[in-house]
Amino acid sequence: MKKHSEKAFPRPACRASELSSDLARRIASLIGSAEKRITEIPGPSLHRRTAPTDLCPATYEPSVTVVAQGKKQVKLGQNTFIYDPSRFLLTSIDLPVVSRAVEATEETPCLVLLLKTGMATIRELLSLEEIHVDSAPSDALAMATGETTPEFLDACCRLLALLETPRDIPFLSGLIQREIIYRVLQGMQGRASGPLQHLEITDRDTHR
Q: Could you tell me which residues come within 8 angstroms of residue 9 by beta carbon, excluding any fewer than 6 positions away?
């Protein structure tokens, strides 16, 4: 009976691993041999690297970056962030960084889903009483990593699955992207979050 229960209700870590593999397969199928693909869905783009790269200057826009396979590193000043299938990267404002692919081969490329975040959606979700994020110090960074939960990864897979049914994109892509952002905010609940503080500050400045 115990074995049957474990099979029927897989542990979160196992489920997350399965969903990361599914997401990696979807990205690999959609991007082919290209290094980058802008999808027909407004917001997400796909990225692929087949070998580790040198540190390269870049500007990261407000976004959620999901590594379905491989590992990446980004340096923001003296701070280093590592993100892989177990952790996503959240960026809240345009940031000058130095980044590189850490783990990538021809057989097992580094596969990434990048989703630009919508300020209106984040503002709306942060206003809900059900979501509470502790205030961060004034000098908190506008970048952080968070856990890629099964619920988060499942939403990412469903977003890319829309490319198989283009007629559904105008009706469902916004809803699923909203869910992804909700999952990110849900994971930040109960702890100080520099990126979310920067998002709120940027939003106030925009609406002055």
A: none
Does 3.40.30 match the CATH number of domain 9-206?
Answer: no
**Domain boundaries in the chain?**
9-206
77: three-class secondary structure by DSSP:
coil
Provide the H-helix boundaries in 2-149. 2-8, 12-31, 119-126
Q: What is the mean pLDDT of residues 158-175?
A: 97
Summarised one tens digit per residue, pLDDT across range 21-75 is: 999 999 999 999 999 999 999 999 999 999 999 999 999 999 999 999 999 999 9
The continuous run of DSSP H or E covering 101 comes out as strand 95-103
Mean pLDDT of 171-188: 90
Confidence of residue 208 (pLDDT cuts 50, 70, 90): very low
- Using alpha carbons, select from 131, 133, 173 the residue that is nearest to residue 156: 173
- Asked whether 95 and 62 are in contact (CB, 8 A), the reply is no
Listed in sequence order, the residues at least 6 apart from 87 whose beta carbon sits closer than 8 Å to its beta carbon are: 145, 146, 147, 148
**Rounded distance, CA 85 to CA 62, Å?**
20
Q: Which residue stretches of 82-127 are H helix?
A: 119-126
Exposure of 154 in the CB half-sphere (CA atoms within 13 A): 9
Of 148, 149, 145, nearest to 89 by C-alpha is: 145
**DSSP 8-class letter at 162:** G
Q: For residue 80, how far is the Cα from the chain centroid?
A: 17
d(CA 76, CA 83): 14
